[in-house]
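Need a sequence for this fold. Nothing fancy.
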């Protein structure tokens, strides 16, 4: 890996507020394969990445998260861990993403501190997002907007929800669920601040090209 790669990052997101392209790792058991893909994602300019794996044991999950954290530090990116507070604490991740069945936002904040990022899944419910905002979430995520191969048991969200949410929320809004280079544009048009992409990014034929195309959608809508 070349040291000067960090100098060529695209302006995919800003550190202070989640916006643009937000990568989410798929369930990849082979750590070497996962890290190779993560390296391509981060070296292409993505500055926010969520580590999510529901299928492997704790020891391997910890190993993968630790390796991704090292890459994030190298590329000056932010690592957010899905669900597992213990993993987030163990690797000193930059944040935690929680769902309605996970640890509450106030408890997560008490454990992580006020400088960490906390995101919340709000599915297709603006009421949940309003609660998350009041509790101090740094972003809220709505979806799934499209059929997802990463998470099969999802509720369906309508893109109009993004416009409605934008009217009542100050917190950044992330769209999630089956998003790829061919279907992301309408979600950006409807008002999301960021798109969370997993399969459409990590299983793309050429990851750097996918990053460039997805990032350019925000520039086209600005």
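Here you go.
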């Amino acid at each position: 890996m070349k040291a000067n790669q960090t100098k060529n990052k695209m302006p995919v997101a800003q550190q202070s507020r989640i916006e643009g392209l937000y990568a989410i790792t798929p369930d990849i058991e082979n750590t070497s394969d996962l890290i190779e893909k993560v390296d391509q994602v981060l070296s292409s300019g993505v500055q926010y990445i969520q580590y999510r794996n529901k299928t492997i044991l704790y020891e391997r999950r910890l190993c993968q998260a630790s390796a991704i954290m090292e890459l994030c530090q190298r590329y000056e990116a932010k690592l957010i861990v899905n669900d597992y507070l213990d993993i987030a604490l163990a690797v000193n991740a930059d944040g935690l993403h929680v769902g309605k069945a996970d640890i509450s936002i106030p408890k997560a904040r008490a454990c992580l501190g006020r400088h960490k990022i906390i995101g919340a899944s709000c599915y297709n419910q603006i009421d949940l997002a309003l609660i998350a905002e009041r509790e101090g979430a740094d972003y809220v995520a709505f979806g799934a907007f499209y059929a997802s191969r990463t998470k099969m048991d999802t509720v369906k969200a309508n893109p109009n929800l993004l416009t409605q949410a934008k009217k009542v929320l100050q917190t950044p809004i992330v769209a999630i669920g089956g998003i790829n280079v061919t279907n992301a544009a309408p979600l950006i048009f409807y008002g999301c601040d960021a798109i969370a992409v997993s399969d459409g990014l990590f299983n793309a034929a050429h990851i750097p090209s996918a990053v460039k195309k997805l990032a350019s959608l925000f520039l086209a809508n600005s």
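For context: The first helix runs from residue 31 to 43.
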